[in-house]
Amino acid sequence: HGNEEQIALLQAKEVENTQKEAVIEQLKAENHEMLKKINAINIARCKAHPNLRRLYDKRTLCEPFTETMWAKFLENFESIYPAFESKLRKDFPTMPETLLRICTLSVMGVKAERIATILDLQSSTVSSHKQIIKKRYFAAERKAPLEDFLLKYVV
After folding, report:
1. Are the CB atoms for 107 and 39 separated by under 8 Å?
2. Inter-CA distances, 99 with 4, 6, 38, Å
3. Which of 89, 97, 85, 84 has its CA nearest to residue 129?
4. Which of the chain's termini has less CB crowding within 10 Å, N or C?
5. Burial of residue 115 (number of CB atoms within 10 Å: 0-12, 13-18, 19+)
6. Whole-angstrom distance, CA of residue 69 vs CA of residue 79
7. What is the pTM of this model?
8. Taking the CB of residue 95, how many other CB atoms lie within 10 A of it?
9. 80-139, pLDDT tens digit by residue?
């Protein structure tokens, strides 16, 4: 008789846990959507920023960034994404600089071709680096864009 009560209790706990897991998944999805909205606002701010908007304009020629240009870019970037790069470096201290820069430009919605020009790489190299970042640093196999994985560093 005692075993039946224990089994019933365990089954009730299992149902409760399943319900809690569903709530957690729903909250994660809502959080992700909220971060996407925040980042959309940040991207709009970047597109309006006098020193960043040229990164989005197809009519504006872009050239590879020197280290001085990158430092100036970072100052402007950090005015919109204050802790992004430091959080990324904290979580991934061994991430190479090129991959960090790809993350930085990707989170602000800069297209792969433009990233390639800025970092003096081939577009295909940028695409493969994005896959490496997702796989190595976010243990991700799914097809979601890199930007989705970077959202947690936006706020």
Report:
1. yes
2. 57, 53, 23
3. 97
4. N
5. buried
6. 16
7. 0.85
8. 16
9. 999 999 999 999 999 999 999 999 999 999 999 999 999 999 999 999 999 999 999 998
